[in-house]
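hey can u check if this looks right to u? its 221 residues, i copy pasted from the old doc so theres a chance i mangled smth
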Amino acid sequence: MANDDETGPCTPKRGRPLRGTEDARRRALLKAAEELFMDQGFGNSSMDAVAKRAGVSKKTIYCFVANKEELFEAVMKDHIERSPLPALEQDIADAETLERTLARNLAEVARVRLVPFAVNAFRLTIAEAPRFPEIARTFYREAPARHIQMLADWLRTQVDHGLIALDDPTDAATILSSAMVLEPLRTAALGVGPLPSQAVIEVRAKTLARLFLNGCLAKRD
C-alpha cells in the first residue's frame, strides 16, 4: 500500500489541522529547497530532505510540483517574480534620451540580477548541467533570456523608429546583457572578484550604453 504522505489527493487527513496557510507552506518549501540545492547540489538533494527541512510531508511537495526539476524552476521563478525586470521607455525622441534610457535599464537590471542568490545559482547550474541539462535550460530561460528578449524588442523598436541601425537586435541585446550582467556574475562565481558595487554598476552601465550606441546610431544626412 502506498504511503499516504507520498501519494494521493492533496487534502489534509480528517482531524489533522492544517500547518499554516498554503502560501506559508509554499514559502517554507521554496526556502528549504533553495538552501539544500545551494548547500548540497541539485543531484545530492532529495525530495525527502526538502520535506524534512520545510516541515511538511513529501505529499505536500507534490501538491506544488511534480518533480525535483520543477522544484528548481519554482525556486528560480520565485526570485525572478520578487525582483522583476524594469520596463524600458518606448517613446524615445533623440540620441541623448536613447543613451540615458539604455544606461538606466542596464544599471537597474544589474542591481536585481547581481546578487548572492544569482552567484550561487550560477555555480550550481554550471556544476550540475552535465548530469541535469534541464536545470541549465531553466536557469537560462528564467534569468538571462528574459532580459535579452526584453532588450531585443526595445532595440528593434528603435530600429523601426530610425534611431539606430542594427542587423540583428537579438545578437546586440545578447552582447549588452552579457557585458553588463554575465561577466560580473561569472567573475563572482569563480571567486576571482566580488560583485560590483552600486557605484561601479552605474559607471559601467553609462560606459556600455555610450560605447554601444556610438557604434549603431543611425547616420543623419
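The chain has ten helices and no strands.
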